[in-house]
Amino acid sequence: MKIAILAAGGVGGYFGARLAAAGYDVTFVARGKHLAAIRKNGLRVTSPLGDLVIEHPKVVEEIDSIGKVDLVLLAVKLWDTEAAARSLKSVVAQGAAVVSFQNGVQKDDVLARHLPREAIIGGVCYIAAVISEPGVIAHSGTMQKLAFGEYDGTRSARVEAFDQACQKAGITTEVSRDIRRLIWEKYVFLVGLSGTTASIRKPIGPIRENPHTRAFLLDVMHEAVAIGRAKGVALPENYAEDRLAFCDSLPATMTSSMHHDLERGNRMELPWLSGGVADFGKALNIATPRNSAIADILELYAAGTH
């Protein structure tokens, strides 16, 4: 199985490195200092599950220079989805499937504006990994899971092949017959975690312990559930309460990548997370006061402050 990784950030770099270490033909797409460091020193991963170094990885600057591949793992930031989709036309025309492990629920609709629907596999990833320095991916915690599946619920040969590759690479997997629901389940939690930690500027511990901020977190997730149910996603009515209980099981110091981005002055995925819930609410005539407030409060920081 030939696999392309677009791009070799925290998510793509980690899972791509695990697949490459298992012997699969993996080509990474990277830019700038990260690309230069990978070419010079290889791609390094630090992880509680075991460090690894891919000594001489295949790495390119543009994906259309790769040629024919079987599968593209898409892991760019959400604002780059449109450009990434356009860049994938050539490899998809040669038979590649695309599975996005990005955040949000809008990603595959954006891909489908540029690529055939049948080329797109639904995906969700669960991991905390970042580029700690050029050429180095730092994985924190032990969670490293990929869930994926065809949108029509079938268990296709390409999904089976990727599942086998992941298992050989030591990656936890779930092949789903209802991948849209899984994507929305993660979205509900992610909207709650990112929206509250970024707007309150605290990790999850203090937020869940204070009755006012705990209620705020629950309301944020309730709104996301209401939007998903209105869109026909099979989320239980009490799913926000389920995710609040999950929040209670997390380390008190856990925060979100959006909170990290805010603190560092980086661009944030706000328009697709709380901003996305607010936009869906306007389109569906569903009130989303908490998420709308988060989007408004963070608006001045959304593009980054560098």
From TrEMBL:
- Which keywords does UniProt give here? NADP, Oxidoreductase, Pantothenate biosynthesis
Q: So what does this thing catalyse? A: (R)-pantoate + NADP(+) = 2-dehydropantoate + NADPH + H(+)
Q: What residues does the Ketopantoate reductase N-terminal domain cover?
A: 3-152
Q: Which InterPro entries match?
A: 6-PGluconate_DH-like_C_sf, 6PGD_dom2, ApbA, KPA_reductase, KPR-Related, KPR_N, NAD(P)-bd_dom_sf
The UniProt entry's coiled-coil ranges are: none
Q: Can the keyword NADP be found in this entry's annotation?
A: yes
EC numbers: 1.1.1.169
Pathway membership, UniProt:
Cofactor biosynthesis; (R)-pantothenate biosynthesis; (R)-pantoate from 3-methyl-2-oxobutanoate: step 2/2
Q: Name one GO molecular function term.
A: 2-dehydropantoate 2-reductase activity
Functional note: Catalyzes the NADPH-dependent reduction of ketopantoate into pantoic acid.
Name of the protein described by the UniProt record? 2-dehydropantoate 2-reductase
Q: Which residues form the Ketopantoate reductase C-terminal domain?
A: 178-300
Any one GO BP annotation for this protein: pantothenate biosynthetic process
Q: Which PANTHER family match?
A: 2-DEHYDROPANTOATE 2-REDUCTASE, PROBABLE 2-DEHYDROPANTOATE 2-REDUCTASE
| Species assigned in the record | Caballeronia glathei
